[in-house]
Amino acid sequence: MPRTDAFEKHTEAYDNWFEQRANLYRAELKAVRGVMPSPPAEGMEVGVGTGKFAVPLGIKIGVEPSEKMAARAREQGVEVYPGIAEALPFEDGRFDVVLLVTTICFVDDILQTFKEAFRVLKPDGCVVVGFVDSESELGRGYARNKEKSKFYSEATFFSAREVETYLKKADFHIETIRQTLIPGEEQLTVLDGAGNGAFIVIKGIKRAD
Q1: Where does 49-157 show beta strands of DSSP type E?
Q2: What pTM value is reported for the model?
Q3: Which of 18, 109, 117, 155 can pair with 98 through a Cys bridge, CB separation 3.0 to 4.6 Å?
Q4: Domains held by the chain: number
Q5: Residues 22-33: pLDDT tens digits?
Q6: Which range of residues forms the domain containing residue 102?
Q7: Can you tell me the distance from the alpha carbon of 69 to that of 52, in angstroms, rounded to the nearest whole number?
Q8: What residues does 12 pair with on adjacent strands?
Q9: Separation CA 88–CA 1 (nearest Å)
């Protein structure tokens, strides 16, 4: 079942989170933008929310189970379809890029989520997954305090290694891993690899047969 109750109740608080933590948001956006294919790639975001990543990244299509969140994204010009990550409402081989940012912690089946992303991608298309690493200090803090959180009480957090493993099981070739929100570094620093940063971006390719 989609975990939408918190997002239906707290849509305004969700948007406010990004405004109150603007530096974190900018760092995450920079890390994601750095691995995105160049336009005019046709992209789709799974769990598009209110459009906080889709809009600045030029993604015009999204899937979102929360109607209140979807309405906000539509106001920003995103074409939003109701649905869930494990059963995307699109034909095979439609998109050049599928984006998931802080979405995988809310899905019921991460492997099926990645298999669906693979299905709707064109050959040589890519999936871009942004998430908080469960093994980072921030990730451990979210997990410890998730019962107190409006949004994360039902979340399941994953490590970079776990996400990479699931992507490979879904037949993706891992092309790039980036990290940001790195202790001791400037806030907008983005580095290759994982293990130091709290926010990880992994890009996987659907290789043509």
Answers
A1: 61-63, 79-81, 95-101, 121-132
A2: 0.91
A3: 117
A4: 1
A5: 888 999 999 999
A6: 5-205
A7: 11
A8: none
A9: 14
